[in-house]
Design a protein that fits this description.
By secondary structure, the protein is α/β, with parallel strands linked by helices. It has eight helices and nine strands. The chain is elongated, with a radius of gyration of 24 Å.
Length: about 280
């Protein structure tokens, strides 16, 4: 099964169509004969890394009335201004009902992929990998992570349920890096620990080494990061007397797209614009 056909994505598309169409497309019903057929094409409107084009079959199939749908590009492909990415033929009313939802998905996801590809290009020639985060639009996480992967980013955990990542608030609530790492390693899972200073890095690694001497649990992986919220430590916590280190200054996004290969490598697992154009309607 394609990642773009995941049940969560199918439901997301269903809700997006219901939100836009509601009880029916009043304008199309009023102005277009029910039997009239047409062909529509989707074009890139600026240089971009495409993402989300695989949603078009999902969108149009849910509405029916489609004779053919050809994807001319795939997620991860670089597109030039004016380059066609897909073509659909079928009932004119179906094309018009699905047009805006199709564009909304592709525009947003292509924007994510395009920006992600610029960060990836900045690390070219280094051992660094750009990871994505859980800072996604509510309800859109799965498709936004697919878009990040289309831009060459490495997908990190999908949610709280599939990996352990100790963050600053866990450390604060637990009392220390050492105790947080010790407890996390006791689960037997691989552990990642977000650190803000060299001292926290050394503490996390020491805690991992101490645990490894008495268990076969994997050592923690230090992950640098910038906290976005802070929980107040409990009064009895040793962390209550620690000064909070300042967050590192994030690296600004590059202002221009560096040269890149014709196709961005993808992991398995706003805004760049796209538009659609319909050929003149023809009676069947």
């Amino acid at each position: 099964m394609s990642a773009w056909n995941h049940p969560e994505i199918l439901e997301l598309v269903r809700r997006a169509l219901a939100e836009d169409i509601g009880s029916g497309d009043l304008t199309s019903v009023a102005t277009i004969d029910a039997a009239r057929r047409a062909t529509g094409r989707f074009y890139a409107r600026q240089p971009m890394v495409l993402a989300g084009v695989e949603l078009l079959p999902v969108i149009f199939e849910q509405q029916g009335g489609v004779d053919s749908l050809r994807l001319l590009k795939s997620s991860g492909d670089r597109c030039a201004d004016g380059e066609p990415v897909a073509e659909v033929t079928g009932l004119a009313r179906t094309l018009l009902r699905c047009e805006r939802v199709s564009l909304n998905f592709m525009q947003r996801l292509s924007g994510i992929a395009t920006l992600a590809s610029r960060y990836v290009a900045e690390t070219e020639g280094t051992p660094c990998k750009i990871l994505d985060t859980r800072k996604t639009t509510p309800g859109l996480r799965r498709v936004e992570k697919l878009a990040a992967a289309a831009g060459g980013v490495t997908n990190h955990r999908l949610g709280l349920f599939d990996a352990i990542l100790i963050k600053n608030n866990h450390i604060t609530a637990c009392g220390s890096v050492t105790e947080a790492v010790r407890r996390a390693l006791a689960t037997g899972r691989e552990v990642e620990c977000e650190v803000r200073t060299r001292a926290e890095l050394d503490e996390a690694l020491a805690a991992g080494q101490a645990s490894a001497s008495s268990t076969t649990s994997p050592l923690p992986k230090p992950v640098s990061g910038s906290p976005t919220s802070a929980a107040a430590p409990p009064p009895s916590s040793p962390a209550a007397s620690r000064s909070k280190p300042s967050a590192p200054t994030p690296r600004p996004a590059p202002t221009s797209s560096p040269p890149a290969p014709s196709r961005i490598p993808r992991s398995p697992w706003i805004s760049t614009s796209a538009s659609s154009s319909h050929e003149p309607l023809r009676a069947p």
